Amino acid sequence: MLSQEQILEKLKTSGALLQGHFKLPSGRHSLQLVECARILQYPWHAEELCGELASRFKDKQVGLVMGAAVGGIVVAFEIARQLNIPAVFTERVNGVMSLRRGFSIRSGQRILIAEDEVITGRSIREIIRLVEERGGIIVGITALLNRSKGEEGGMNYPFEALAELETKTYEPEECPLCKKNIPISRMGRRPI
Ligand SMILES: [Zn+2]
């Protein structure tokens, strides 16, 4: 089983966890940037990380894995591949989390919800509502990274993440790196 330190080390070496001086879309500054897609682009890493999560649910008679587009698609798919069951993903349509593309769930179907990272838990809560409305049974919720700082409340189901990661953010005038006149890193969410 991979330790928390091993997971974070893999995220760093694959470029998914970056150290620097970053300006977030919110305008706040951060000393770390996380982009799970950067490690999930390597199928062998996705296989290993999602395999850890799949193993935790292999005895739970899961019938379907469900993630939210875009971040949850690869994680849900790879967990489902290893459990030998289907995976579907949800999308927001006019702001409402929905099942499109002919995807459906059956009443009584046992469902595992999977995400790359959980920060506010908003997407997860929306998927929970969607599944509950259709009579699905939520077996658990899983993610590579829990960045919610304990604010994942409201899920009310077993939650398993591979690693916990707290990312501090600062208003620019309080940012320790700005105080040292360290320039903003060129690597942001949008590659340039
Ligand atoms: Zn700064």
What's the arrangement of secondary structure elements?
Elements: H1 4-13, E1 17-23, E2 29-34, H2 37-40, H3 43-56, E3 64-68, H4 71-83, E4 87-93, E5 96-99, E6 110-118, H5 122-133, E7 137-146, E8 159-164, E9 169-170, H6 176-179
Parallel strand pairs: 3-4, 3-6, 6-7, 7-8
Antiparallel strand pairs: 1-2, 2-9, 4-5
The chain binds zinc ion.
The site of zinc ion has 6 residues, from helix 6.
Q: Describe it for me?
A:
- The chain has helices at residues 4-13, 37-40, 43-56, 71-83, 122-133, 176-179, and strands at residues 17-23, 29-34, 64-68, 87-93, 96-99, 110-118, 137-146, 159-164, 169-170.
- The termini are far apart.
- Helix 3 (43-56) crosses helix 4.
- The chain has a single domain, classed as Rossmann fold (3-Layer(aba) Sandwich).
- The strands form two sheets. It has a six-stranded mixed beta sheet, sandwiched between helices. A three-stranded antiparallel beta sheet has the order 1-2-9.
- The protein has 192 residues and is α/β, with parallel strands linked by helices.
- It binds zinc ion.
- Zinc ion is lined by residues 21, 29, 172, 175, 177-178.
